[in-house]
Automatic annotation (TrEMBL):
Signal peptide limits: none
Protein name (record): DNA polymerase theta
Keyword Cell wall biogenesis/degradation among record annotations: no
GO MF, any single term: nucleic acid binding
Composition-biased stretches (Low complexity): 334-343
Organism: Chrysochromulina tobinii
Alphabetized SUPFAM superfamilies for the sequence: P-loop containing nucleoside triphosphate hydrolases
Pfam families: DEAD, Helicase_C
Amino acid sequence: MALSDPSTVVDDRDWWLGIDDLTGPSVAPAEVPPPAAPVAAPVAPMPGQLSVCVSSPPFGSHAPCAAVAPASASAAGISGAPANFTQVLHTASASVAASPLVDASASVEVTAAALARGESRSRAAEADAHLSVRAALGTGGCGLRTSVVAAYEELGVHRLYPWQHACLLGTEGVLDGRNLVYSTPTSGGKSLVADVLLCRALQRRQKGLLVLPYVSMVEEVTERLTRLLRSLPTTGRRAGRPGAAGKLRVEASHGARSRNGFDGDVDLLVCTIERASAVVHRMLEMPEGLRELGIVVVDEVHMLADPSRGHAIENLLTLLRAERHKLAMHAARHPASSAPARALTHGSGSGTKGGGGGPQIVVMSATLGNPEVLASWLGAALYVSEERPVPLTHSIKGEWASTVALACEAVRDGAEVLIFCATKAKTAQCADALARAFEVALPEAALVTPARLAARCTLLERLHAASPTARTLELYTRTVPHGVALHHAGLGLNEKSAIEEAFRKRTLRVLCATTTLAAGVNLPARRVILPSPYDQAGVLLQPISYRQMAGRAGRAGLCELGEVFVVAGPRDRDKAVRRCEHNG
């Protein structure tokens, strides 16, 4: 079936790239089928608003969209505004500009207003002073060492979001070892809360366990925490050694790295779900059990609902819950002998509002359903935030929309793009189509500097050294020079690591990926494109899956705006609209 011939399309879901995917701008306007309905007048959606494009112009043009329904304002982290708000501002500005009379009293009023605004900004700055990392995370707040606070500042974190401050310092018992379940939208900064609690446990000379679902996440987080916590002393047998040997050690553990537990040389273990279960089982077989383990953090806990891996998370949480209960019962029967252990593990807190014994259990997710049920089962504090620092818009593209056209438009504007494909085969098909279209549509001389071109050559060398299959290497040779690559679970660890690093450095501009990138890897994509509202089984995307993929757009600290586009034919548009209206 020729993608460029719409008359051959039998099922809208099969036509997932669009008519311009392989031909690019060489398709004459006369060859493009006319839209089935009139094009709506362009109305830019407010952030957090859903827009539907009833048709799309030829490749390379801007597609007019009609805003049809606002998404939840709280979910987008903004407040609503009337549709004609911009026109009202323009009208008011024009009236002021047209006024020929400006007297002294008006000048005095303007000056007074300016002073009032300055005082208001000053008061706002004073009110936000408690949110600075030094005030919130230092000795007067969460009690982190000065060196760790400085490391946050080096990483570009200078201020907490209000919800992070409230969760850490306003939720009773959390800093004293009480279990915690919390949920915040993707890109809401949820990792910082867990990092702070991990750091507090390590400062008390306790070990920490961080559980993540994917190897790519394990590697990324291990690198970040190594930079953040490098100044802390070790918790183990290296404590008395001079120099770097006495520094805290963060290590990754997954299929390619076979460490199955802690020893005297590891302080913080970052591992996959299955490896975490093995680590805890092994510790429970030892005489000391989990006594040296101060905290266990489980990210993406919504995967409890995953049919293939959910049982591993449930088993892990069940073991931890039972161990805490056992230690709490022991502490209740022998309060004198348990007091020193409680003080070491949980600072000054004790009792039901604090830790109660055993490792603190912290679980988090951006898409957790019924978090109050999980919190009740774990005996945990619950904190839910709807604050999203980066505004996110959701749009539906009609049948004539091209995935390639959307990607080309974003790249031409200087943005990066993530395209989530249903299968590994479609990631390759999409990447190949993009590279061919970019070769014609995007002038390399205008978009690619000599430094970026050299970086792409270096990336190709790294990918070649990673020993991919001959077919994949051939695809890289065609796509990487145009800033396009693919990412899925079938790639080797070195391949994925090289591709992710290149995307962060903007050597690559577009990634065609399966859902391996939908849960947690922090990549700077302004635009996310879903070429179909269906998954690999031909089933409409589940709400959690949609929110995870949509949440990759507009990452905090990396982008100022996030855009999500779903390509859906006429028969699927209503379903896609319902999914996007509720952000899943």
